[in-house]
Amino acid sequence: MVTVVNPHHWLNEDGSFPDDPRLRSRILRVAQCIEYGGPLPRGHTRETLVPCKRRPGNQPCLGLLWVLKESDDSIHAFCRVCETDELVIHEWEDTLWADGPMESVGLDAMAREAGERRGEPGSEDRESPLGRALESLGSTLTADQVKRIIARSEQPTAVLHAILESATVRPSRSTVERLVPVLMDAWNAVPRPELGGRSPEAVYRDAGGPTQHAGRNDPCPCGSGAKYKKCCLERNLH
Q: How do residues 144-173 score in pLDDT, each as one tens digit?
């Protein structure tokens, strides 16, 4: 049975999503169909990435919804696999998704809108690459704490070992491999007493040399000459 929808009946007055989880789930589905169908000319269809939710014969349908712009400008969402009509959407023109995907927003603009300040050296920013890497690893250390460990460590592997020791669960190899280049960027950016308060990155730059980046296929920071994935990364995972 097709459901006839006016999205404004479910949205908040300002056009935002409702807080109720069930209503929110429904309107998100409607919003996706509007996003795909709104820009279509009348009489045109488009396949979406919205999965069909029907269960013909008590088995989940594997189809994706299609949207059709009807002659009266309503958006008709249906599945071609189970041949089921799901939605007919009216009064969608004033929603946020009427013109298709919304314009991209730069990270700086997003931070300003949220009243946050991003990218300040030494700030405990969970959205920084290092903060995100630590969070995905399950580490109890903050980005600022790791930077303080870097400032007093002789080798990047000592910092990596401290991070792995702080993990609440055993990290996967792929998670550690994603951490390594982020950690090396932090290692190169942190000022060090033995460099006169300058960072390795600044020293390399002033000397006209490239900034050091260590990935899983790069030489191991311990100086063994072997690739990192075959040296300290292998040992740290066991």
A: 889 999 988 888 888 988 898 888 888 888
Beta-carbon contacts of residue 117 (< 8 Å; ≥ 6 apart): 111, 123
- DSSP lists the bridge partners of residue 110 as none
Question: 16, exposed or middle or buried, with CB in 10 Å at 0-12, 13-18, 19+?
Answer: exposed
**Beta-bridge mates of residue 77:** 67, 87
- pTM for the model stands at 0.50
User: What phi and psi, each to the nearest 5 degrees, are found at residue 129?
Assistant: -55, -40
Residues 42 and 70: beta-carbon distance below 8 Å: yes
Q: Is the separation of the CB atoms in 42 and 73 below 8 Å?
A: yes
Q: Is 192 helix (H, G, I), strand (E, B) or coil?
A: strand
Short-list 75, 72, 71, CA closest to 38: 75
